[in-house]
Please model this.
Amino acid sequence: MDNQNVNEKSMDEQYKNNQKMDNDMNNQTLKGEWNQLKGSVKQKWADLTDDDLTHIEGDRDKLVGRIQERYGHSQEDAERDVDEWRNQNKY
Model:
């Protein structure tokens, strides 16, 4: 493996680690403000039930999973939808 491939791999790993740290911090914010966010979530994904929202408890992965179930989205599409919603709402 040449140096360029090693550097690219290292940069990819660093990017993934930074993304994970950002997601972890954002997940804490999401959980802490979940009661305030439920209305916005229901507005965006009206097919989610109150029981779904109770189950999700502000957990991004659970939200992604419920969106997959209710809307038939792939995991990637559901993750993108959630991340776009979070960015639009600064969460």
User: Anything to note?
Assistant: Residues 3-89 form a domain with the Protein Yjbj; Chain: A; fold (CATH 1.10.1470.10). The CA atoms of residues 51 and 57 lie 10 Å apart. The helical segments are 3-32, 34-44, 50-56, 60-71, 75-89.
